[in-house]
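Curious: why this fold?
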Amino acid sequence: MDAILLQILNGLDKGSAYALIALGLTLIFGTLGVVNFAHGALFMIGAFCAVTLQRILTISYETVDDSRTDFLGNPMTVETPYVQAWFGPETGATIIDWSVPLAILFAIPIMLLVGFVMERGLIKHFYKRPHADQILVTFGLAIVLQEIIKYFYGANPIPTPAPDVFSGSFDFGVLLGFDPGAIIYPYWRLVYFVFAMAVISGVFAFLQFTTFGMVVRAGMADRETVGLLGIDIDKRFTIMFGIAAGVAGLAGVMYTPINAPNYHMGMDFLVLSFVVVVVGGMGSLPGAVLAGFLLGILESFASMTAVIDLIPGINQIIIYLVAIIVLLTRPRGLMGRKGVMEE
């Protein structure tokens, strides 16, 4: 039982990332009808927002420390971050330590701007084009963004640690009555799961309980009728594109302590996230979230040593096998809507 619970927990953080990215993908497809293969790049950009803020906060200047000397007896120079000089050593160190959570505030306006520019500058020209054209142009955009990140940040992963207070592990098993040390789980992975649930709940509440969200949902169901009522639905859909970009970006920001950011991380998650969307059902927001967590947990179980010894390589293909089974039995996915991509 403890092994089962541990694998469920292990699947939650990756499932959270899948669910957040798939949620943004479904928002874009459901509102604009666009298959956005650049959505994984938005996840990557969010991650590098955290990297950028960390670098900004650690910009430093050299000072001479007379109390310390090198082996020749000369005073040593030390690097002092400007943040520590402005706010004091302790406060400055705390700000640097909390750079990843603070990157949420840094990333939100950047991701909204990136989403707005992407939609107004490129995506809007492909609304009425075939899905194949949309896939090609957005996939090309993803490659361009990936190479830009590679040029400025290099090809190697960049470690971006979580705050020290979350650097340890939590003995989850003790709460459930297991022996101490039976289920040890990193604090930050729990934080990421709680964060993902908060974002997902916020998006659903926004769509369900606000006037803006109700209009958007009506536009998703019947765009022409809403337009005939004098509502500028295109403007609202552009805002939704920005929100979807923000969701992907925030998912990337908070994932950086779990997986060190690199230039191809967007592509790594993109294909799997599209599988998640298809399994959940094209156009279904609850389906995207459900499939994200389900496939994340299944991938975790498939990564167990005993399972890999029994079926080598199963952890690499389990998601695709599940997708095949689901689509053979339910062609529209788990919660797909009739008529979506069936013309």
Notes: The chain has a mean pLDDT of 85. Residues 2-32 form the longest helix (31 residues).
